[in-house]
Predict the 3D structure of the following.
Amino acid sequence: MNSHSIVSDRSQPLKLLAISGSLRQTSSNTALLKAAQQLVPEHITLKLYDGLGDLPHFNPDIEFDSLRAVAQLKANVEWADGLIVSTPEYAHGLPGSLKNVLDWLVGGHEFYQKPVAFFHLNAQRGQYARAQLREVVKTMSGEIIEEACLILPVSKALSIEEITNNKEYCGLIQNAIKTFELAIKKEKTSLA
Ligand SMILES: Cc1cc2nc3c(=O)[nH]c(=O)nc-3n(C[C@H](O)[C@H](O)[C@H](O)COP(=O)(O)O)c2cc1C
């Protein structure tokens, strides 16, 4: 199967899990992921992870399956064919809540070699958090799909509607998702 036939095969469903590193009610990172949710074609399910605020602090002494929130996180990651992560930066670092999510996934089979794309806003800011996120995901053997990573060229926070009403932003998001889909399906085909 060549790459073209993989792109055009829209009958194959794809499951994506989006994780926002922000707990803010009006988070621009969450808005970006929710906009992407509205822009995916029908055969793609993009689920937004909503357990960030419920996860206990990571403690390697705790058996994860005794904790509902952790078991739910792992089940969501296992379910997904690929992950899309979007994060703010706090004091030149990753938000503790997002690092906590990743810490719970370290060493588990759910995250290992999982295709990951980063969707971000504003190239001028957040470079430390983005670099840290990349390093952590690489160290955890996540499969970063570089060509599917996106930084939306905006310098202010946007609502979901401000993103979905903008043709340029919609095009960039849809193109990144299509590229992500192609990379994931190509990888699955080569493993089959
Ligand atoms: C406590 C705090 C610290 C921040 N530190 C940084 C920083 O070091 N670098 C940066 O680029 N932005 C920083 N910001 C700005 C946020 O990263 C930015 O507003 C981001 O878009 C918020 O994402 P959200 O809308 O998804 O919550 C900080 C914001 C807060 C509240």
